[in-house]
């Protein structure tokens, strides 16, 4: 008997769903109406780590399928797992996927700003009377004409619900980035699906450390603008990393928050050449955090940026006292690196 082979993935609490050939268990869970923790979906950031209790699987890279592995194994990046048999897994959490809160909106381009050579700020306006509910820090998906989607975090706070602000880094060959930087004009239409994601501020009085690298500033901006509007008394620390000083594209805004005594702001440049005139902190942004706060016990960390930065921050911060349960992240992986 021939046909496509599907495998059953059972979560440790007894819930089960079907996983197709060459399909990740993260994608299969979503297709079945469930959500597992995931961020970069490229096997780097570690947000999806869980245990494979039994069964055979592979964790393919872009180069090859890799060797077959056999459970039980702990701390497996579940976003890369493709079953070779039925599996039993223990993720950090699983919850019902709430599609009822999402909506598709056709927005209009209000304006496009270019605050840095590689960054565009896209401001979109919803149709009259249309509003979108979301949590500060969540993201949306731009729906392209051929059915593909691109994910971007919303930079505006939820109070500004009649439109969205997106921060887009130019990526050569990137479908939406190329369109935005070279074709899109005010008045053009963009189809969106929102909201999505579990990167949002948790209710707590613990000191909060925000780490934003590149356009990872977008969700951090959304969270901080909402926090500051509410007049929070939590100690807030904002570390922003960029390759060069000119790529600190929201430096003026962050400095204004700091000057008003609302938070502590530390910009960090990783490639500050001798002739650039930079007199601030240099190096890797997560290392700057540890230089200032070597003991992270009792803190919460919200990290957003490249998968590599997020993974490095997670690993080193846990070595310096941060509880794994208090590390929240949104890792930005280029779409061609993401396999579902």
UniProtKB/TrEMBL annotation:
Annotated 2Fe-2S ferredoxin-type domain residues: 7-95
InterPro entries per the UniProt record, alphabetical: 2Fe-2S_ferredoxin-like_sf, 2Fe-2S_ferredoxin-type, 2Fe2S_fd_BS, Beta-grasp_dom_sf, Cbr1-like_FAD-bd_dom, FAD-bd_FR_type, Flavoprot_Pyr_Nucl_cyt_Rdtase, FNR_nucleotide-bd
Domain FAD-binding FR-type: 102-202
CDD domains: fer2, flavin_oxioreductase
Cofactors, names only: FAD; [2Fe-2S] cluster
One of the record's GO molecular function terms: 2 iron, 2 sulfur cluster binding
Pfam families tied to this protein: FAD_binding_6, Fer2, NAD_binding_1
Domain of life where this protein originates: Bacteria
Keywords: 2Fe-2S, Iron, Iron-sulfur, Metal-binding
Protein name per its UniProtKB record: Flavin oxidoreductase
